[in-house]
Amino acid sequence: MKRAAIAALALCGFAFGQAGDSKLMFDVASVKLSKLAPPGQFIPARMAGGPGTNDPAQIHWENVSLRSVLQRAYGLKDFRQVVAGKDPSVFAAYYDIVANVPAGATKDQFNVMMQNLLTQRIKLAVHRDVRPIPIYQLVVAKGGLKMKESPDSPGKPLDALPAEKGFPAIAAGRNASWTRTRDGHLLFRARALPVSCEPIGAPGCEFMSPLLIGGITPEPRILENKTGLAGRYDFTLDCTIPDKPAAPAADDLSDCFNAIEQQLGLKLVDTKEPMDVLVVDRVENPVEN
How far, in Å, CA of 257 to CA of 269, rounded? Predict the structure, then answer.
């Protein structure tokens, strides 16, 4: 599968670990339906602990979606690689998961333990497939790039920057900051922000993702970088997002799409691309722990 350098929400490969090794199990584990978020309310998920963290001996996950759990358990690059089979309601539940991890367990072994746990406790059944997934390709607009290359050198510690001309301050060590005003303006400010970098997911590889996650698209999209740009850039972006209870339609967001092209010299191309996905065929409520 060909991949250019892909920013932030992009995909790069597909790993399923060592599924089938039923001997890999957590020492103790609990899987329960989460009661943290009442219907219609959003509470951020918490995924702490496990191999490679400061607490490798235990995980403590709260209010996690099935997509997020499967993304971690199957080593996926993006949660949108997890799709429903015939029943979209499989993604309605959120979970609280606590587990003691055997000493010395690797990340790959941890993933298989999580797969086995989900098979046992929520009767998870999945299969692989290749499907067309809606994405945005980021390209340089016909008018040419309008961002300026940053004078900050790669690897140089970034100092905090104060607010400027209505745009938010940027904290020390951060590449970008954004805010939304009461009249619907999205004010996004960035410095020394690379359009792409390796490895994917490394600090500073968040170009455009705060914009997509922040509400300028009807739903979060995978972003594939097709610009060919290798530099680091300083820029600001000012556009208007309609204030609506539900996700705005694409037509309502033309101001932000136009602003990206007019102010940055970039363009988001709406398309689909065949990608490996994990299809969820069956999920049941957790059995007794």
Answer: 10
pLDDT, one tens digit per residue, over 169-197 is 999 988 888 888 888 788 889 898 888 65
* C-beta of residue 29 within 8 angstroms of C-beta of residue 69: no
3-state helix, strand, coil in the chain (%, to 5): 20, 35, 50
Q: Report the C-alpha gap between 168 and 161 in whole angstroms.
A: 9
Three-point CA angle 184, 189, 193, nearest 5° = 140
Torsion of CA 42, 253, 190, 168, to 10 degrees: -60
Q: Which of 98, 94, 105 is nearest to 28 (CA)?
A: 98
CA–CA gap between residue 58 and residue 51 (Å, rounded): 9
**Strands ordered across the beta sheet of 28-33:** 28-33, 94-100, 58-65, 46-49
| Of 113, 25, 23, the residue nearest 73 (C-alpha) | 113
Q: How far apart are CA 17 and CA 101, in angstroms?
A: 17
Q: Are strands 82-84 and 266-282 parallel, antiparallel or unpaired?
A: parallel
Question: What's this model's pTM, rounded to 2 decimal places?
Answer: 0.65
